[in-house]
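dumping this here before i forget
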Amino acid sequence: MLGLSGAAMAEPLDGGRIGYVLTERHWAVYETEDSKTECPDGFNGGPREQFDELFPEDSKVERTVLETRLMREGRQFHPTTTPEPFPFKEVQGDISYGMNLDGKVGPEDFQSPDGEAGIDNQLYRAIGCIASYRTDGAVWFFENFFMAGNGYTRWMIELTGVDSLENDDDVTVTTYRGLDDLVTDASGQGFVSGGTQRVDVRWGQSFINEVKGKIVDGVLTTQPIEVAKIPWSQPGVSGGYHLIRDLQLQLKLTANEAQGQMAGYTDVAQFTHRLNTNWATHHQSYGQLSSPSEYRALRRLADAYPDPETGANTAISSSVNMTLTQVYIVHPSEETQAWNQVAKNGK
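structure:
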């Protein structure tokens, strides 16, 4: 029954099954009130600031468009690990959201706001002093805002074999991409539980993963997913996604929503490719996000999955703060799936 409160709806835990759809997500950036703890030297400059420094208006040196604008644009899509020509400000604090992904406590690890040691979130170290990723920054706001209206990014999880949302030592968690709009409240700003989402079994196969988990005191934790593909695209841009290795979920469950984080090792090359194909240089300027400088930081701080030839790490520990709203997940019939497979194979 769409639009009704959780108290008025049918019990969502039906036959040991409950579904949730993603309604809010942000890269996990721990922020203090004045930002001085994590960013004592301020925030990084972006494309406009760097361009002005390289090519000041009062310079008497004549340069062509090829030597200036096109050169800078080319470096967006062909980043390198050559020495950073601009000072890059990494996070200096020792507190971060995230999980202990490797089960160790090392000198580069953070501590969670709750005091847990060994938190792995080197992505935060790289992006935490870029204004665009912080609360109400351009990436923080628009990527979440557009997610709600962009069907490509309709990411869901379904729990099966659930005896209780409070404690259950053996549940199965499956990820899917959905096909339907989100159900909002009258303001259009909040999301209402009890809607329905059809599973995309034709074009969403690469987003389907299954993993075991357990619920302790209302908190779901999952075993790692070896490689997860997470849809993460701006409207009108196809193919926007992140690749996250060893992805784990840690979510506080209720009958109406799931709230917490997903963490894992994000592929650096895909992170940068997705950024540049979804955010033009013009838009990166709102929030002082320099893609070439960010790429160097990501590669420098990457802490997992070394390239077999070069030995350089290709993935960086990361965490996403997220909220999912309860939905009834609708699976197509076996007949429909068979027809979709025929159509996909062109037979």
